[in-house]
Amino acid sequence: MEKFEINILGCGSALPTMKHYPSSQVVNIREKLFMIDCGEGAQLQLRRSRLKFSRLNHVFISHLHGDHCFGLIGLLSTFGMLGRTATMHIYSPKELPALMQPLVDFFCKGMSYRVEFHPFDTRSSSIIYEDRSVTVSTIPLRHRIACAGFLFREKPTPNHIIRDMIDFYAIPTFAINRIKNGEDYTLPDGTIIPNKWLTRPSAPPRSYAYCSDTMYQPELADIVRNVDLLYHEATFAESEAGRAQETFHTTASQAARLAKDADVKRLLIGHYSARYDDESILIKEACEVFPNTVAAKENLCITL
37, 67, 213, 228: which one is catalytic? Predict the structure, then answer.
């Protein structure tokens, strides 16, 4: 099975702590790297994760709070010093290009590569990236400023050929691709060989949903339903539910409730408030509602 991994670079919230870096993740799909959010220190964590800088060509910024984007100019500057030539694509709310371009012009003069911005509308869901193996769509979220999550969906792959059957029926090479894509094969005497005799199903496509800073939104269940892994912020414990609502954040149990309602396979929580020296209270509250919950931590790698 091709690689589909989520690498946690940072899972803290706005106030710095000695325990966690601000929000940043890297999704590795078939050795293509996609960064989600870029808080301070993201490039240091990228080094520690042993992910190759050269494979990172796309950065997705959920919203313009500093703990999700203050690391971006440093990352772009470092790539310039490394002699990068490939274009860097940045997907973000519409305000980011006007803020970032002067910084790029000032700090990254003579840069050897181009930065291309792709603004998106946070109010609706739309596909903002697509290649041969994956689509990335936005997830409208409710925070104090315009904010969106991201849904990575792997595209279905063709069936696997059963080589012994292909050889048995002496099927020519030119017919293989059509058989992989579901066609039956007709022998020269007119006999039809069913596709199910010649192939076995490929692995089902995988999916990952990233829900950044947001208040609890039960309606998100329809968007993230059945995903293999849901990352959802869990800034507060239930004892701080009032504070969560006031600041447009979510409690651990609310994140778990969404995972349960959406029938996701696994829940990953993060974006912990600096008030918690020990996040065990958050993971405990989430697991009471949705047992298959994992707590994010720096340099954690989850394979789908």
Answer: 67
